[in-house]
Design a protein that fits this description.
By secondary structure, this protein is mainly beta. The chain is about 10% helix and about 35% strand. The chain has 2 helices and 17 strands. The protein has helices at about 20-40, 150-155, and strands at about 50-55, 55-60, 70, 80-85, 90-95, 100, 110, 125, 130-135, 140-145, 170-185, 190-205, 205-210, 215, 220-225, 240-245, 250-255. The strands form 4 sheets. A 5-stranded antiparallel sheet has the order 1-10-9-8-6, with no helix packed on it. A 5-stranded mixed sheet has the order 3-2-4-5-7, with no helix packed on it. It has a 4-stranded antiparallel sheet with strand order 13-12-11-17, with no helix packed on it. The two termini are about 25 Å apart.
């Protein structure tokens, strides 16, 4: 599930119709404003302060140094998180810790990870901070957030290439029946095999390029790509792009809406890397540039 990391990511795309001049620039700026609002939200990626992998058995959790998992915020001794041999995760809450589990005071709770209950994980909240369990490649971890995280309170903003209508590309859509499969690595060193419903083929300055998306939403496609700006003007690992579904054999790739993955802002995300098939031999001088805030 590649996009499980992308909760709270913005999925806003312009339509396939042609928008001219100032109206087009305004449409792109609207998408960028929505992305910025989502990123800066209290539960957005900028609030991450930890990614703590659970060991089998009991894991003592809290901000004190004598815990197995030392948090950057919260009570000295929050409780004990236990990962059993079936993969179930439970929490025994320490008395007086002030912890709320899904908004309730409890002594013990089962923690549903982000792969269950429709992707809605159990929230463990303590003051301005919280954590929930994520499942990745057969392992489980606590994803820890704090509304007062320095990455959020000292956010320096987003930087973009100037809006360039020539990078709003109409591509030929070549569907695969059955879907093909590609391997997509992650910053964790894992490799997932993902179904690809087709490929988008476009031309630029007389050269032909193609990109392979995955589809986890019914009404859009998701591209993880890199290009000749990667690692220089733009984030090195990849950039993301959402598009509407193809219509009449055509697919609109608006690179002005390309955005950085969460890993550009925090070391505590688990982002995918651009697969070899999606490494474009061209400078895509459109969309979001490298974050100036220090990470990535």
């Amino acid at each position: 599930m590649i996009r499980s990391f992308a909760f709270a990511s913005v999925v806003a795309v312009t339509s396939g119709s042609v928008i001219a001049g100032d109206a087009y620039t305004a449409a792109v700026e609207k998408v960028r404003a929505s992305r910025l609002e989502t990123l800066k939200a209290p539960a957005g990626w900028l609030s991450l302060i930890g990614l703590e992998w659970l060991q089998p058995g009991a894991n003592r959790v809290g901000s004190a140094a004598d815990n197995d998992i030392v948090l950057k915020a919260g009570p000295a001794h929050l409780g004990v998180v236990t990962l059993d041999d079936t993969g179930n995760v439970t929490l025994e809450v320490a008395r007086g810790s002030g912890v709320l589990v899904d908004g309730r005071e409890v002594q013990r709770a089962t923690l549903v990870d982000d792969g269950g209950n429709g992707g809605k994980a159990t929230e463990v909240r303590f003051g301005s901070a919280n954590f929930f369990v994520i499942a990745r490649d057969g392992k489980k971890a606590l994803r820890v957030k704090d509304e007062k995280a320095e990455t959020r309170t000292h956010f320096v903003g987003l930087d973009y290439f100037p809006v360039d209508p020539s990078w709003r590309v109409e591509a030929e859509w070549v569907p695969f029946d059955p879907p093909h499969e590609i391997e997509i690595g992650s910053v964790l060193g894992t490799i997932d095999k993902e179904k690809v419903p087709g490929r988008a083929v476009f031309t630029r300055d007389g050269h032909t390029y193609e990109l392979f998306p995955i589809q986890e939403e019914p009404d859009s496609l998701f591209f993880v790509f890199a290009d000749r700006t990667s690692g220089k003007e733009t984030y090195g690992a990849a950039r993301f792009l959402d598009t509407p579904l193809a219509k009449d054999g055509k697919l609109v790739l608006d690179f002005n809406e390309a955005r950085n993955p969460p890993c550009a802002f925090t070391p505590y995300a688990t982002c995918p890397l651009a697969p070899p098939e999606n490494r474009l031999d061209v400078r895509v001088t459109a969309g979001e540039k490298k974050y100036a805030g220090g990470h990535g």
